[in-house]
Amino acid sequence: QSVLTQPPSVSGAPGQRVTISCTGSSSNIGTSFGVHWYQQLPGTAPKLLIYDNTNRPSGVPDRFSGSKSGTSASLAITGLQADDEADFYCQSYDTSLSSWVFGGGTKLTVL
Amino acid sequence: EVQLVESGGGLVQPGGSLRLSCADSGFNFRNYEMNWVRQAPGKGLEWVSYISSDGSLIYYADSVRGRFTISRDNAKSSLYLQMNSLRAEDTAVYYCARKTTGTTYFNYWGQGTLVTVSS
What we know:
Number of helices of chain A: 0
Largest sheet of chain B: 7 strands, mixed
Radius of gyration of chain B: 13 Å
Oligomer: heterodimer
Number of strands of chain B: 11
Structural class of chain B: mainly beta
Radius of gyration of chain A: 13 Å
Shape of chain B: globular
Largest interface: A-B, 25 and 20 residues
Distance between the termini of chain A: 29 Å
Structural class of chain A: mainly beta
Shape of chain A: globular
Number of strands of chain A: 9
Number of helices of chain B: 0
Strand content of chain A: 35-45%
Strand content of chain B: over 45%
């Protein structure tokens, strides 16, 4: 049971927009530590996709965007491409657990 | 370019020990906080342990506290994880992940090393 809750899977057709939700609590996403997102392509290590709720590291396309409201966050992907198929994880720091925590992951399928 | 390379994984019997290493090819290893994150087969990510840039602060997940020990050698730009009393549920790919001071995200990851605990 993950501290952060994500849907197990989402799907969309090429060119469409999809969103992935991440629900936490006042001790993690609801704090100033915020939420971060990682993309894990098949057979590879996770890669930082969004940090501090809304920021993209250099090299990440602006098709990927993040938002946060209260104790929940969302990752949006526009203009879906076949090579976007991956697992996506949200992550935060939990002040009650004194631990870095992840969501269970969401598998994106491009139809 | 930052490159983190893990090694030391393998097959070990329950109750056994293993030591993982993570080598940083960059020049500023001593300036960064380091972590171990693991991923059981077909499962999600789980944070395992943290060590500050100078090694003075160390944290563990409850699932490994008392069995695993994190350490670093800044002169060798290397991170280690000594794993004792291994259990089947420790089977996972172990990633080293770098974190910048003052942030709560992991901005660089190694490629991972697989640890299998089985008789």
